[in-house]
């Protein structure tokens, strides 16, 4: 009986520690589109759920094979004015391919170009920022170059009393001794896309607890203060011969409602009726589409899972991403419950 009481006390303390922090997190969304266009209803929606910060995709740094050099692509354009109620964090995405094409000596040159481009966009569009973020799923081959680039920015931003952050994947948390810890002030833990895309029916490649449980216990020992990004999006997998061949991003069920092209097989599965181009992808007859989505319940489960391993310190909880395409299935109460997990 004594041991039973001790166990109950331990479980209660554990549950309590998973849901209550002294530091109230900031609430944020990622805005991952090339056109910033927030209407009044969007502003009101964000304010109603307590959002104070937006992570803006500023541009990608893509390798241009014809010119044999990196160039900014998909630069953000501002169709509406910024709102003074939000703090804006510019985000720059760098694919590994870009870094791998460059010599180590050219990294600082690239860093200066990126710095100038961020500066240009922020001044031109009146985006004052306290934090700059880089998004890169670096590898062993790109790590040294990427970290050199981050060091340049860390030194430059520190002089301006600004913060540098970088996105962190769960495998980089678990294997930090091998992958290295980036030289930044903060990390943004991307708590989704933890494994390979999987064609197995019922398996969710965006988030599933079995994949998360392989890594999440290492979060509490990570060397950087961590913010957290949780998924509120969906996509579709193009499956051929039983293998996932491609991802159709920003996809929802209704995209496959055209019965002349697709036949519904139930359980978020659609089968192509013929061969055709669809959303830039080539479909063959009998190819399968598997819709994968993150419901409010799944996102809340993810929030509870990672919350148990976060340190009690000031942080931001961000949802990826703000898009009416996805949020039409999320009530404001759903969003509030997700944010409230880390209250």
Q: What descriptors fit this protein?
A:
343 residues; alpha/beta; 2 domains; eight-stranded parallel barrel
SS field, number of helical segments: 11
Let me know the largest β-sheet: 8 strands, parallel, barrel
In total, how many beta strands? 18
CATH class of the largest domain: Alpha Beta
What is the third-level CATH name, the topology of the largest domain? Answer: TIM Barrel
Radius of gyration (CA) equals 21 Å
Shape: globular
Give the helix proportion (percent range): 25-40%
Uncertain runs are 5-17
Looking at this structure, what is the CATH superfamily of the largest domain? Glycosidases
Domain unit count: 2
Mind telling me which CATH architecture of the largest domain this is?
Alpha-Beta Barrel
Element order: H for helix, E for strand: HEEHEEEEHHEHEHHEHEEEEEEEEHEHH
Structural class: alpha/beta
Order of strands, widest sheet: 1-3-6-7-8-9-10-18
Q: Quote the distance from N terminus to C terminus.
A: 34 Å
Outline the structure in words.
There is one protein chain. By secondary structure, the chain is α/β, with parallel strands linked by helices. The chain has two domains: 23-233 and 295-340, Alpha-Beta Barrel (TIM Barrel); 240-283, no CATH class. Helices cover 31% and strands 28% of the residues. It has helices at residues 2-19, 40-48, 96-101, 107-124, 143-158, 170-174, 176-179, 209-213, 296-307, 324-327, 332-340; strands spanning 26-31, 35-36, 53-64, 69-73, 77-78, 87-93, 131-135, 163-168, 186-190, 226-231, 234-240, 243-249, 262-266, 269-272, 276-278, 281-283, 288-293, 316-320. The strands form four sheets. It has an eight-stranded parallel beta barrel. It has a five-stranded antiparallel β-sheet with strand order 12-11-17-14-13, with no helix packed on it. Strands 2-5 form a two-stranded parallel ribbon. Helix 4 (107-124) packs across helix 5 and helix 9 (296-307) packs parallel to helix 11. Residues 5-17 have low confidence and may be disordered.
